[in-house]
Amino acid sequence: MRVASNEVQALSWKLWVSRRGSCAFDLADFRQTRKAPHIELQARDDSGCKLMVWQDPRRVTLAHANCQQRCTPGIYEEAWPVMFDPGNGMCAQVR
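Given the sequence above, the corresponding structure tokens read:
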């Protein structure tokens, strides 16, 4: 994930929930609809799936809502928000 000046420039996120399944999100499937106070991306397919992004100098947090159809059945309730390192786009270290 890459965010600059409140614009999502890159997003290819596959969130694994244990070994039971995953959720997948790609920027091409979304359009950015908000820049502040947080970023919002809406699914282009009008499914109601929404991604929300908050950023600070140490991390970028990505959460989702109404995105069950992008996940393996039965795991959506366990697919928690994820924090990314803004420097490298990988999962953030939380200390």
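The mean pLDDT is 91. Try to locate this feature in the token string yourself.
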